[in-house]
Design brief:
Number of helices: 12
Shape: globular
Helix content: 25-40%
Distance between the termini: 32 Å
Order of helices and strands: HHHHHHHHEEEEEEEEEEHHHEH
Oligomer: single chain
Largest sheet: 6 strands, mixed
Structural class: alpha+beta
């Protein structure tokens, strides 16, 4: 069973909604939904937290999900190699080991607009589609929507990118906010990746649908976010600032509309 199915199964067993789980992890409900549908993966820290929350071993979470293991950017052999290097440097100089210890860790780090260079954006049109609700047999029509793939590279020092290193996390009437991330790595870091902006029209079956059509793409800016957002607002979504107030635009709606569909 892949990790998304395990998350959904354990969440349901505990009578937790996606919103309940999102609040515990300080992420959006849409991101929890993407975990459960296999459209994105939790990072390493979040995997450990899921293991503790659901009282299941890390091996139980990961052993059958080869895609998850590959995209975690966590190479056990490489980690052992660097442990040996650090031990060797410790014998030579405490100062040298301090430097290497400072610059070697596997924590997730989020990138901002100035950290990347966008090389290409592609667009996929999702046509209107009639689907059957499995539980009721009811037919509903999924409206047309659009998905984007943002190809990019980074020259930021020590940052390693996975195959997919970003996705959309929230949206409002004018924009879709993307988060792009990487991990710290001393040698052999991958510098090119992509962020995928998924449609959430399939959530129309049981949740509110928020289309990507007619919206610009943004990347979250920590400095702007800290100025515009406060803990009290976090409790009330209606009081959240607009995406354009907390983020940097990376593609405006007019340029996105002109993109050919693939």
């Amino acid at each position: 069973m892949d990790i998304g199915k395990i998350i959904k199964e354990k969440r349901t067993e505990r009578n937790l909604t996606q919103e309940d789980l999102a609040q515990q992890f300080f992420v959006t409900r849409q991101l929890i939904s993407k975990w459960e549908n296999g459209k994105s993966y939790p990072d390493l820290k979040q995997v450990v937290q899921l293991s503790e929350l659901f009282d299941i071993s890390l091996e139980g979470l990961l052993k059958e999900d080869t895609g998850m293991v590959k995209d975690l950017s966590f190479d056990i052999k490489q980690k052992r190699l660097f442990k040996g290097l650090i031990l060797f440097l410790a014998v030579i100089s405490v100062g040298v080991i301090s430097i290497f210890s400072f610059f070697w860790w596997v924590d997730l780090t989020y990138l901002e607009k100035d950290d990347i260079e966008i090389t290409k954006i592609t667009k996929q049109i999702l046509p209107e589609e009639v689907v059957v609700v499995e539980q009721t047999g009811e037919e509903i029509t999924l409206p047309q929507d659009v998905e984007y793939t943002v190809h990019f590279k980074t020259n930021k020092w020590l940052i390693d990118l996975a195959k997919i290193s970003g996705t959309n996390v929230t949206s409002d009437a004018e924009g879709v906010e993307i988060q792009i991330w990487g991990h710290h790595k001393l040698f052999g870091a991958k510098k090119e990746s992509k962020a995928v902006v998924y449609s959430n029209r399939d959530k129309l079956l049981n949740e509110e649908f928020d289309s990507n059509i007619g919206k610009s793409l943004y990347m979250y800016n920590r400095k702007k976010g800290a100025q515009m957002f406060n803990p009290q607002q976090a409790k009330d979504r209606d009081k959240w600032p607009l995406i354009k107030e907390t983020s940097d635009k990376i593609a405006d709606v007019k340029s996105l509309e002109k993109l050919p569909a693939e």
